[in-house]
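note to self: the first set is below, dont mix up w the second
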Amino acid sequence: MTTRVPFPVVDEIARHCLQEDEPETVHIEVHLPGRLDRARLRKALHEALNEHPRILMREAPGPWYRRRYEWELTAGPDVEVVTFPEPGENALRDARTRALACAPALTASPPIRLEVVEADAPAARGTATVLILTLNHTALDGPACLRVLATAAELYGGRDNSPATPAPPRRTQEPAPPPPAPSTWSRPARVAPGTPEPSPGNGLLVADLPLPHRPKGAPYTVNDQLMVTTALTLADWNREHGARPRPLRITMPVDDRPRDATMPIGNGTRLVEVTVDPAELALPMPDLLHRTATRTRALKARPRPQLGHGAALLTKPVTPVAWRAALTRGLRRAAAPWTSTTLLSNIGRIPYPLDFGEDGGTAHAVWFSAPARMPRGLTVTTASTAGRLHLALRWSRTLLGPADGARLRELFEQHLHTTEVTA
């Protein structure tokens, strides 16, 4: 008998709000110095899927009056997951475009695909192969799929791909009271429109930056530096475009899952919202970093359902799921003015070597990008490897264009440098 699993809260809300123009995809991009054997890679990934069977799922069919969406777990893939596009000058660009524009189907197991792009000139940046992993965010998140990819790397190369360092222990002491923040009932700033493109969908810019310096023993983290950088970047962007200053509200995913083979596969992050008053951005940098660190620590420590209490109530299976879907979409439209300004997803230091053995080598750059549909219209995603920060800016084309992305990247780099205080 086929095993079925009811959609968790995050999956159901995402399923209610799907849009063809702006698919809910997560893009993961891994750069390797060597070439991979095609047959071995396919075999390794298929074995990795079997080692993490929760990823082998598809949406089960059902009548309109059903009370829940359900995942149907499968014994194996319904479709070929690994493809090898023709090499060429635009192969990587085209693979990125597909990752943003075409979501893997929810009705075929698993809801992911892996494109293996072979670079024409590996000597230029030390990259011979780029893995483009695209996942349907209704079913899975980036950290979960990275765990599966780490298992595939270990099976392919025969080398240990366990997390390089254990996760830091959870804080047990009560966090300090956070500084006062603007009311969550006030409307946050929106990202000011730039020069949108005529076609719908998402645009993407990736950048490789130095990891910001942080003094030893500093009471703030790199994540706090990125939070401050994002706030300053958007405040400058809005000022340049004549927008009136308003509180910036930045959504931040928090992931408490272990990074080893026991990591639950699915959408496992919870969302917290960090609000920054425009006046705070004028504080001296050490004060701004300390204030941000206190606020984010308090928010992370506060128990909260993944999407908040309202989402948990909306997904109670007391009425047909089609009715709840219509209600959820209506509430989403009504709440658009109160949606956070942007989302900052900091994956942090990539915990796995992603070592594909002698021929593939070890990953030297990893980018992620999160969906950027309106009304936010912009997401900032960061990860780090080998002391480098890998930044992905992703935007809705109805809000921004490529030149706007380049300007945001420039502002981000400028402000990232200003967070490198010495005290």
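second set (the one i keep forgetting abt)
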Amino acid sequence: MSQLTLYTNPHSRGRIIRWLLEELSVPYTVKVLEYGSEIKSAEFLALNPMGKVPVITHGDIVVTETAAICAYLADHFADKQLAPATDSPQRGSYYRWLFFAAGPLEMATTAKAYDWRIDNDNVQAVGCGFYQDTLNTLEAALQPGPYLCGEQFTAADVYVGSHIGWGIQFKTIEARPVFTEYVQRLYAREAAVRATMLDDALLTASA
């Protein structure tokens, strides 16, 4: 098996990939990069010129962007069933919500955090539309439950659930009952608990 390495920092979206790797239960190594130094080093910029984590290397393959890493890992380790089969009717929903979080949800919550103006003059030009429309759309997707693809837990739940959890914590996402119940269900998973403990241990060690 090719060496799988996660480049991360515990204060980053790398926590999403750590959680997914724990769900997959596959061997991997972790390289923690410090902000402002290692993360902008020539060695790391050769992997990701953006100078951002997370990044994974899998043998000679380099994957950046958190949603793309989730999709890659779920497909590569297809036997772990963290993505619907390619011929499943749920495959479209899986892709839809995985990239909904990377696009409209990320944009809407960032705009909320920094009080960026989205109104009738510019709403058609931004990727998320109105903030409430974004949240209402996500809420409707989660109401049938228990997961985004029905009964199957997928990498999309890891990605979307992380966004919702952080959004509630930092008040960029309203703590609607559907959102809080979904996040509580996800965070109770053994892999999620284990991943949090591993990343929190890194924080303690660096304190």
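remember for set 2: DSSP finds eight helices and four strands in the chain.
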